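[Meeting: bench + compute handoff]

Bench side (C.D.) handed over the final construct sequence. Compute side (W.E.) agreed to return the predicted structure before the next meeting so the bench team could plan truncations. Sequence as handed over:
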Amino acid sequence: MATSHDQVEGDEDEYVVLDLDAVSEKVHIPPNAPYVLSGLDTLNPILIIDDKIKLIGEYEETVGTCIVLSENDATPEVHEETGSSEAKSFSGKSITNPNQVPRKQVKPVCQSQKILRFKLLSECQNENEQSSVKPV
Protein backbone atom coordinates (compact mmCIF):
# COMPACT_ATOMS: atom_id res chain seq x y z
CA MET A 1 0.00 0.00 0.00
CA ALA A 2 1.41 3.40 -0.99
CA THR A 3 1.61 6.07 1.65
CA SER A 4 1.00 9.74 0.98
CA HIS A 5 4.76 10.28 1.24
CA ASP A 6 5.36 7.76 -1.56
CA GLN A 7 2.75 9.46 -3.75
CA VAL A 8 4.28 12.90 -3.25
CA GLU A 9 7.87 11.73 -3.65
CA GLY A 10 7.63 11.59 -7.47
CA ASP A 11 6.05 15.05 -7.69
CA GLU A 12 8.37 18.01 -7.69
CA ASP A 13 7.07 21.47 -6.83
CA GLU A 14 7.61 24.20 -9.38
CA TYR A 15 7.51 27.85 -8.34
CA VAL A 16 6.77 30.88 -10.52
CA VAL A 17 7.38 34.53 -9.61
CA LEU A 18 4.38 36.76 -10.44
CA ASP A 19 5.46 40.18 -11.76
CA LEU A 20 2.78 42.86 -11.44
CA ASP A 21 5.05 45.90 -11.86
CA ALA A 22 3.59 46.97 -15.24
CA VAL A 23 0.07 46.75 -13.82
CA SER A 24 0.63 48.35 -10.41
CA GLU A 25 1.52 51.68 -12.06
CA LYS A 26 -1.84 51.79 -13.89
CA VAL A 27 -4.35 50.38 -11.41
CA HIS A 28 -4.59 50.20 -7.65
CA ILE A 29 -4.44 46.65 -6.32
CA PRO A 30 -5.82 46.58 -2.79
CA PRO A 31 -3.76 44.66 -0.24
CA ASN A 32 -5.13 41.20 0.59
CA ALA A 33 -7.64 41.41 -2.27
CA PRO A 34 -9.11 38.05 -3.28
CA TYR A 35 -7.82 36.70 -6.57
CA VAL A 36 -8.24 33.78 -8.97
CA LEU A 37 -5.25 32.52 -10.94
CA SER A 38 -6.14 30.11 -13.71
CA GLY A 39 -4.46 28.50 -16.68
CA LEU A 40 -1.01 28.08 -15.18
CA ASP A 41 -0.43 25.20 -17.60
CA THR A 42 -1.20 27.44 -20.63
CA LEU A 43 1.01 29.98 -22.42
CA ASN A 44 -1.09 32.90 -21.11
CA PRO A 45 -2.48 32.39 -17.59
CA ILE A 46 -5.29 34.67 -16.41
CA LEU A 47 -5.29 36.53 -13.07
CA ILE A 48 -8.51 38.15 -11.83
CA ILE A 49 -8.10 40.38 -8.77
CA ASP A 50 -11.08 41.43 -6.64
CA ASP A 51 -13.50 40.37 -9.45
CA LYS A 52 -12.60 43.67 -11.19
CA ILE A 53 -9.05 43.66 -12.52
CA LYS A 54 -8.39 41.13 -15.30
CA LEU A 55 -4.78 40.43 -16.22
CA ILE A 56 -3.13 38.17 -18.76
CA GLY A 57 0.32 36.73 -18.16
CA GLU A 58 3.24 35.58 -20.24
CA TYR A 59 6.07 33.34 -19.04
CA GLU A 60 9.68 34.51 -19.28
CA GLU A 61 12.77 32.52 -18.41
CA THR A 62 15.05 34.25 -15.91
CA VAL A 63 18.70 34.98 -16.59
CA GLY A 64 19.58 33.35 -13.28
CA THR A 65 17.65 31.83 -10.44
CA CYS A 66 15.12 33.91 -8.48
CA ILE A 67 15.29 33.15 -4.78
CA VAL A 68 12.25 33.91 -2.62
CA LEU A 69 13.05 34.77 1.00
CA SER A 70 10.91 35.12 4.11
CA GLU A 71 11.75 37.66 6.76
CA ASN A 72 11.17 37.31 10.50
CA ASP A 73 12.24 39.38 13.46
CA ALA A 74 15.43 37.93 14.90
CA THR A 75 15.94 37.57 18.61
CA PRO A 76 18.04 40.46 19.92
CA GLU A 77 21.66 39.75 20.67
CA VAL A 78 22.42 39.95 24.35
CA HIS A 79 25.88 40.90 25.56
CA GLU A 80 27.00 40.58 29.13
CA GLU A 81 29.00 43.48 30.47
CA THR A 82 32.36 42.42 31.82
CA GLY A 83 35.57 44.07 32.88
CA SER A 84 34.94 46.54 35.71
CA SER A 85 34.18 45.69 39.32
CA GLU A 86 30.78 47.41 38.94
CA ALA A 87 29.92 45.17 36.05
CA LYS A 88 30.89 42.12 38.05
CA SER A 89 28.46 43.16 40.78
CA PHE A 90 25.67 42.90 38.17
CA SER A 91 26.80 39.45 37.04
CA GLY A 92 24.05 37.37 35.53
CA LYS A 93 22.21 40.40 34.14
CA SER A 94 22.47 41.10 30.45
CA ILE A 95 22.56 44.51 28.84
CA THR A 96 21.36 45.28 25.33
CA ASN A 97 22.23 48.37 23.33
CA PRO A 98 19.11 50.58 23.03
CA ASN A 99 20.54 52.21 19.87
CA GLN A 100 20.89 48.88 18.10
CA VAL A 101 18.82 48.54 14.92
CA PRO A 102 16.31 45.67 15.06
CA ARG A 103 17.63 42.66 13.20
CA LYS A 104 15.76 40.49 10.74
CA GLN A 105 16.25 36.81 10.12
CA VAL A 106 15.99 35.81 6.46
CA LYS A 107 15.34 32.25 5.31
CA PRO A 108 15.06 30.91 1.75
CA VAL A 109 11.56 29.71 0.86
CA CYS A 110 11.98 28.56 -2.73
CA GLN A 111 13.74 29.22 -6.00
CA SER A 112 12.37 29.71 -9.51
CA GLN A 113 13.60 29.87 -13.07
CA LYS A 114 10.41 31.46 -14.44
CA ILE A 115 8.73 34.84 -14.17
CA LEU A 116 5.07 35.35 -15.07
CA ARG A 117 4.66 38.97 -16.20
CA PHE A 118 1.14 40.34 -16.25
CA LYS A 119 -0.57 43.05 -18.35
CA LEU A 120 -4.09 44.39 -18.24
CA LEU A 121 -6.30 42.26 -20.45
CA SER A 122 -7.62 45.40 -22.18
CA GLU A 123 -4.04 46.41 -23.14
CA CYS A 124 -3.44 43.02 -24.74
CA GLN A 125 -6.70 43.28 -26.71
CA ASN A 126 -5.69 46.76 -27.96
CA GLU A 127 -2.26 45.44 -29.05
CA ASN A 128 -3.88 42.54 -30.94
CA GLU A 129 -6.34 44.89 -32.67
CA GLN A 130 -3.52 47.26 -33.73
CA SER A 131 -1.38 44.40 -35.07
CA SER A 132 -4.31 42.94 -37.04
CA VAL A 133 -5.15 46.30 -38.68
CA LYS A 134 -3.10 46.68 -41.83
CA PRO A 135 -2.26 50.14 -43.18
CA VAL A 136 -3.87 51.00 -46.53
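W.E. noted at the follow-up: Residues 121-132 form the longest helix (12 residues). C.D. will use this when planning the next construct.
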